[in-house]
Design a protein that fits this description.
Layout (H helix, E strand, L loop, with lengths): L1 H33 L10 E6 L5 H10 L6 H10 L2 H4 L3 E6 L4 H9 L6 E4 L7 H11 L4 H9 L3 H6 L14 E4 L5 H15 L2 H9 L4 H14 L3 H16 L7 H8 L36 H8 L8 E4 L7 E4 L2 H17 L5
Antiparallel strand pairs: 1-2, 3-4, 5-6
């Protein structure tokens, strides 16, 4: 009888132990898998960046430094179970407050990156503008990009680009891509956009205008800087092409603004015309060596579809409504220019 009671007692203890182990395992699993483990000091989310050459120890160190991991032992135990050491992916990740360890590990393990956006537009005037914009958004460094712009690459040879006109390659567009996109991968996207834009029809129009694709984009950058109105752009493009065909300097004020480097300027002065620069179209005939901004497709098409006329001069109308007065003779142009200058003085616009 005593033996029977003893066995019964042992069985009860055994069951209690099993229950305790199960409860402990369940609680441990809850802590590791289900309990929200990511707290961001009141922020809803933050981004973390895992560079391509990161080691696993550097990854763990970064998560600790960013105060992402709350329970290091639990996180590392689960990371080991998921083989994170050998499977984590570089990239830019959104860490959301309230995530579990398992969710964060799966995110980094499976490369569930948050895409970045890079938008090229008319505010990009120089190589440095493009370099800084890309380096600010991607893992690619400024040094890599500077070397790319300065080096004679197969890509430059393919399209006959120089260090100055390589900007023509960047047709304004918004790219959505991974933060760790490499330079060759990024340039392939830019190239696809460029070649996609230059259809056979556009190439033929450039040929009829006796311009290369690069010439068209450089001229479009000047035209766009003169006016944002479609029909005005076509009219202005016609003026500049007439001047080129007559071997006259373009005398484009936007190129002087580019040379000065202050794009808030509304009025150029006579002294600007004496600046020694290949971009000064008052001192140099023909097109400048590169675009003065990244022109939009609309402006490029305006050059390709330029108006044919006999005008050699144009000047903004005094009411500054975006339109211009056009002239075939310098004498007539001077009358329009004097009226414009008088109005600028009246409005107190000195620069």
């Amino acid at each position: 009888m005593c033996a029977k009671k003893s066995r019964k007692k042992l069985k009860s203890v055994f069951y209690l132990l099993i229950l305790g182990v199960l409860l402990f395992a369940g609680y441990s699993a809850y802590i590791a898998f289900l309990k929200p483990s990511i707290y961001l000091d009141g922020k809803k989310y933050k981004f973390i960046y895992v560079p391509t050459k990161f080691t696993y120890d550097e990854l763990i160190g970064m998560l600790e430094e960013e105060n992402i991991i709350q329970d290091q032992k639990t996180f590392e135990w689960l990371a080991k179970a998921y083989d994170l050491k050998n499977t984590f992916k570089p990239g830019r990740y959104r860490v959301v407050a309230g995530m579990t360890n398992r969710q964060l590990i799966n995110c980094i393990k499976n490369g569930k990156q948050e895409k970045v956006k890079i938008t090229f537009n008319s505010s990009d005037h120089t190589n440095d503008d493009i370099i800084k914009k890309v380096a600010d958004k991607l893992e690619i460094t400024e040094e890599e990009l500077q070397a790319f712009f300065a080096t004679e690459t197969l890509l430059r040879q393919k399209y006959n680009f120089t260090n100055e006109n390589l900007r023509c390659f960047f047709i304004p567009e918004t790219y959505e891509l991974n933060w760790n996109t490499s330079l060759p991968e990024f340039m392939k996207l830019v190239e696809d956009n460029y070649t996609g834009f230059w259809t056979n029809a556009r190439k033929q129009k450039a040929k009829w205008a006796n311009l290369s694709e690069t010439d068209v984009i450089i001229l479009a950058s000047i035209v766009q800087s003169e006016s944002a109105i479609d029909d005005e752009q076509q009219q202005i493009a016609g003026v500049y092409l007439n001047r080129i065909n007559k071997n006259m300097p373009l005398q484009a004020d936007p190129t002087l603004i580019y040379v000065v480097g202050d794009f808030s300027i509304q009025r150029v002065r006579s002294r600007d015309k004496d600046i020694d620069s290949p971009y000064n179209t008052y001192r140099n005939k023909g097109l400048p060596p590169g675009p003065i901004c990244l022109p939009y497709p609309q402006s490029i098409d305006a050059v390709l579809n330029y108006n044919k006329h006999n005008f050699l001069y144009f000047c903004a109308k005094p009411n500054l409504n975006g339109y211009s007065d056009y002239s075939e003779t310098y004498e007539q142009h001077q009358k329009y220019a004097n009226a414009y200058q008088k109005e600028m003085d009246k409005r107190g616009i000195r620069r």
